[in-house]
Structure formats: structure tokens, C-alpha cells
Amino acid sequence: SLSRTAVPGGRIHEVLQLGEVLTRVPGAAYVQTRARNCWGSRRWTASLPCRPSELCESSALLEVVFQYAPSVFEKYTTSVTVGKKEVTLNLYDTAGQEDYDRLRPLSYQNTNVVLICYDVMNPTSYDNVAAKWYPEVNHFCRGVPLVLIGCKTDLRKDKEQLRKLRAAKQEPITYNQGEAACKEINAQIYLECSAKCRENIENVFKEATTIALSAMKKAKGHRKRKVCSVL
Q: Which CATH architecture describes the domain 4-221?
């Protein structure tokens, strides 16, 4: 059965299964994770902001079973197993329009890994990775590991979508272009997925969670050494 979770504003959302699709208006999504070590009661907590392009229509993460109503803040919950750790993911969906540029940074607090997403069938969406989202993320989350995600890969073979792109003298963004952007923004890894076809969705979560937990362990190790040095 689905559990329910309350979010600011009194809204209640269902806990959804991993790999479902979130079709949404332009915006940005943030995921916060919590994991329990199977060897004890110790917990890890991580945040995974997902930064879809302002023109992306789907975050390729979760499926909303209710009608979407645009707002400044929405929350969805799912879970993923990484190794022997079960991780609960709380996805925070925030508006990506310029009107909310001053509010969006509030969601960056305590972030451990950032997902920057773009639409492989939208060159403008791809350009915004380096032009808009990376500068914003780098400013508010400097030093936090990044993951770059190419979404809607199933549309690369869609004849109608290809016709529209070529009519505008454009082409789909290739995997190699995604890899190049990954290097340009110093992201940890580049991944592609198709929400519609359920391709690689779970792997996106697992990779992001693994990177988040790894970064947290390293940061904690640095803090330990710093304390010892001071003492």
C-alpha cells in the first residue's frame, strides 16, 4: 500500500514507486535521501536536487497520479536499495521559472549531490545546462558533486519529433554531446533515460544515491581529521 506524506501548505501526496514518470510543467526537482546501515542503526542523510531544464516537460523520475497544480513547492517520496542500504528519497519539485529565482535557492540547503537534467530533443534545454543551471548550482552548492541526465531518449527515434527538429535546422542531442557537457561542468557521471519507456530510471536513482553517500562519507572523514588536527 502507498503511504502518505504531508508537505508545506497542507498538501498530501502518495508515496510512489521508483521508476514511474513525473510529467510536469517547467521547473526543478529536488530529492532528499535517508539511508540506514544494515549493520546497525546508524543513518546517512543526503539531498539530491534534480535540475530539469526550464523547457523540459518531464523529470523522468516519478509519476503523479493526481492532476498537477503549479506551485512553488511540491514533494514526492519513493525508495531505492543501494547495496544493502534502503534509501528513502523525498523529491522536492520547485518552480524553475525566472519569477522563482529568488525562492529556488532555499531548496539547496544541505545538498549532497545535484542532478542537472535536460531534454535530448531540445537544443535550448541542452544549452541551459551550462548557461543557466550549472552557474546557479555552482554558486549555491559549490563543491557538491553533480550528475548530468539526458532525458526523453526514446524520442530520438520519433519521426514526428525528428521532422520538427530538422524543420528548424536542428538535430537531437547525441550521447557524445552529453558526455562533453558532463566534462564541461565537471559532473561525476553522464546518464541517459527514457521515462516513457522506463529505461534506466532506477539506475539514475542508484547512481545518484551512491555518489551522494560517497561524498558524505568523504566529508565526514575530513571533518574527523580536522577535529583531530585542532585537538
A: 3-Layer(aba) Sandwich (3.40)
186: left (phi over 0), alpha (psi -120 to 50) or beta: left
The 3-state secondary structure of 52-79 reads ECCCCCECCCCCCCCCCCCCCEEEEEEE
Where are the domains positioned within the chain? Answer: 4-221
DSSP annotation of 132: I
State pTM to two decimals.
0.68
Output helix, strand, coil percentages for the chain, rounded to the nearest 5.
35, 30, 35
The predicted-structure confidence for 166-206, as pLDDT tens digits, reads as follows 999 999 999 999 999 999 999 999 999 998 898 998 888 88
The continuous run of DSSP H or E covering 119 comes out as: strand 114-119
Bridge partners of 90, per DSSP, are: 32, 77
Cα–Cα distance, 29 to 73 (Å, whole number): 9
Count of beta carbons in the 10 Å neighbourhood of residue 142: 7
Query: Cell numbers of 8, please?
Result: 508545506
Asked if residue 135 lies in contact with residue 105, where contact means CB atoms within 8 angstroms, the answer is no
CA neighbor of 92 nearest in space, from 179, 195, 13: 13
Cell of 138: 555552482
